[in-house]
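Team,

Forwarding the record for the chain on the shared tracking sheet. I've put the sequence and predicted structure together so nobody has to dig through attachments.
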Amino acid sequence: MITYGPTTGACAAAAATAALRSLLTKELLNEITIPLPCGKDWTFKINKIFAGKASVIKPYNSDHDCTIGAEIFAEVMLIDGGGDGGDNINSIVIEGGVGVAKVTKSGLGLEIGSWAINPVPRKHIEDLLRGELRERIGGSCDVVNVDNVDNLANVGVKVIISVPAGIELAKQTINHRLGLVGGISILGVTGLVLPYSVEAYKETITNALQVVYQNKNQNKNAFGELVFTTGGRTEIYAKKLKALAHLIGYEELFIQVADFLQFAIDCVCSGSNEGSEIKVIHFVGMMGKMSKIANPNNQLLTHVSQSQVDSTFLAELIKSLDAGARVSNDLLKEIESANTARDVLELCQRNGINELPAIVAQRAHQALVARVKTKTQSHVRNHVQVKVYLLDFQGDLLATYPRKEEEKE
């Protein structure tokens, strides 16, 4: 069963609202219900609350992201500030504290040097806190710690959002590569996490590419090349490849595309001025993903996790090689009934059939080049070179394509 849950931004907003209410009314809430940006109401349990400070534990959701269970604090204080004289009669200042990242690179829609509190959560917090103040304007609430205040229209709010575990949690993210340093981001567009959201992952890839493009002057010695990997472990292995040694130190050039390789390629080859400066795409993967890409029956790369490894296809590849004469019918049956590409690879290795990785890498390369050509020709731009690296499950290089003698193909 799929479970939805609030974003870090929504949790921060709930904590900030409870903290402000405690400061204005001395009411220490056990829970609070707030509207989310998507229009739904959500009730949050308040984990800790004091005068002017409250925390919320981010609830479970089926997306299994690393921030589930994180405690998100908001500390508020009342400040001078009557706003702009218009509708926004109360100034709201939002800052980050311990465990919230700061922005150090352009390309994310946030100012360099600012706290990584995204625009929607920021506005959500502002609206809720301003609403809390407006409810008390002209009322009889007991405002504490403010001297000489005749009307709450003269009062603004400063709120500091912190995540004590944020620095450690950030190590499980790609924040450092995006230039987000010192913790996690306070995120959320709708206020709810949509489990394994395709659109959210695509947005991550788009953001990562924008960071590459907008920081090209800092990466001028390596700009023009990208490394697409299928995940964290593959990226670690990719950074150990001699062929990619010249890119080490340029973290943002390594992008984890998961099951969205086609989307990532299409973004680069879409005809944008920025993408036109990319000349080489390195793709690093293991046997499972690579064999799916190599198989023409899989419609290439749209969402390769939705297709099963075709052991029959791999068996046909083996039979097409010189190795085919050395493969017994019994071994072919074992290969055809194998559950995973790893099983097929290990069966071949145990039986001295070592040619499979090379042909899989070659076929995957052909599929990727075909996609690149389709996109680049439709936008009348220079061809992008593709290089494929097939690794085993310990990170050792099994095959690469094109090989040196074929680089000019």
